[in-house]
Amino acid sequence: MGPRIGYKKLAAVGVAAVVGVASTIALTSGSASASPVFGYSGYGIGVEATGGVVNSGPQTVSTISCTTNSSAKMSNDVAAANVNKQAIARTVRTDTHAFNNKNGNGVTSNASAVDIKIGNLLHLTGVKTTTTAVYKNGKLSYTGGTTYAGVKIGAVSVPSLLKPKWNTKVAVPGLGYIVLNRVGGVKSESGIYSYAQAVVVHANVKNKYIPEGVDVAILKTRAEIAKPAVGVVIGDAYVTKANVGKLVVSGPTSYQATCKGTEGKTIRASVGEVVIPKVAYVGAAYTTKNGFQNADKAAVNFTSHVAGVKVGKLSIGAINSSASAWKSKDGKYGVTSTSSIASITVNGKTYPVKTGVNSTLDIPGIAKLTFNQVVKQQRYIAVNALVIDVYSLDTKVVVGHSAAGVIG
Q1: Within 13 A of 134's CA, how many CA atoms are on the CB side?
Q2: 31-35, 58-62, 318-322: least confident range
Q3: What is the mean pLDDT of residues 335-353?
């Protein structure tokens, strides 16, 4: 069964970047008023593996993100969640919801499975995981945990593990080890997030079920609440993204995003170089993000910087972009963006760099270039410094993407 989403006006559930088109979202929740808002985020995941396994992405996902809507919720269920073509968890259900009631403002994420089984090595039944992050009476707190109806290691039932302490490590012969009831939380100046996971499998022994060196999180939940602020900051940045026709051949590189800011600290993500096979070579590049939100002001800035790009016969000099958004407690707000490109040459011939918004340059037989591609709303702005449409390759490359916004 597919995901079910319930909401009144679910605001900005993330920043979706489309290749060749600047990111755009509808800021429908809230207005430009100065009333404080809470930021709600969370997810429930049935199974997620790391370590390079085929079919290893998050499965049975329910999520709410970057929203000020205290009624936001989502649920999802599936008959079986697989890793390495093995049915690891059966009858899996996840749900995540925000709330504003007598218990405070917060988010609860749940995940459950009737059966978790790894061959004859591990068998868990009746597994239920939950975590809640909450703000109440000026204080931040969290709860979380997992309960089990049955735990069997190999052929041996272990009743003492039905209600294990947080982060209980258990050896599993023939597999490696597991961590049961993994729970934790982190407070910051802007809010708190908590997590709970039913079992994390560390396969450090060769076996026929999960490849050696792979970690698998089963029933993975997270909840996050941001303190009341004049707005919730959002945005993202990346260096490049490319597709051929409708096929994405290179996802966003040096990608960064936010739902609550960085406590005013600048965070940088760098890459030495990016090679998009048969499409482009990108020199040293990095992105930055910096943002904060409190009772007086919310502000965020994203930047993207590329030393240079080569696409076929095209050689393009340094490329930069930035996007900023802010809102103050008096209800005022603003957004700005910038972009720049040092130079463009084709077989030694230099072409002019246009600076106008959404201006274009056609290089006959080579490519169409779109400069300073901007999508702007009242409290959100996105800019792509350069979009390259390569005729012979049916390829679109976005270079230097930055976006920023404030909701609430």
Answers
A1: 16
A2: 31-35
A3: 92
User: What is the percentage of the chain residues whose pLDDT exceeds 70?
Assistant: 88
The span from the CA of 215 to the CA of 241, in Å, is 28
Terminal Cα-to-Cα distance of the chain (whole angstroms): 33
Whole-model pTM?
0.76
Over residues 184-206, the mean pLDDT reads 94
The torsion angle over the Cα atoms of residues 404, 322, 388 and 277, rounded to 10 degrees, is -90
Residue 330's φ and ψ, nearest 5 degrees, are -85, 5
3-state secondary structure the chain: CCCEEECCCCCCCCCCCECCECCCCCCCCCCCCCCCEEEEEEEEEEEEEECCCCCCCCECCEEEEEECCCCCEEEEEEEEEEECCEEEEEEEEEEEEEEEECCEEEEEEEEEEEEEEECCCEEEEEEEEEEEEEEECCEEEEEEEEECCEEEECCEECHHHCCCCCCEEEEECCCEEEEEEEEEEEECCCEEEEEEEEEEEEECCCCCCCCCCEEEEEEEEEEEEEEEECCEEEEEEEEEEEEECCEEEECCCCCEEECCCCCCCCEEEEECCEEECCCEEECCEEEEEEEEECCCEEEEEEEEEECCEEECCEEECCEEEEEEEEEECCCCEEEEEEEEECCEEECCEEECCCCCCCEEEEECCCEEEEEEEEEEECCEEEEEEEEEEECCCCEEEEEEEEEEEEEC
At residue 408, does pLDDT exceed 90? no
Share of the chain above pLDDT 90, in %: 61
| CA dist., res. 387 & res. 370, Å (int) | 5
Nearest CA among 91, 84, 153, 102 for reference residue 124: 153
* C-alpha span between 53 and 57 (Å, rounded): 9
Of 341, 120, 83, 37, give the one whose Cα is nearest residue 218.
Answer: 83
Dist CA 226 CA 188 (whole Å): 9
Dihedrals phi, psi of 33, to nearest 5 degrees:
-65, 165
**Type of residue at 20:** G
Longest dimension (CA), the chain: 76
Q: Tell me the C-alpha distance between 63 and 94, whole Å.
A: 9
Over the chain, what is the mean pLDDT? 86
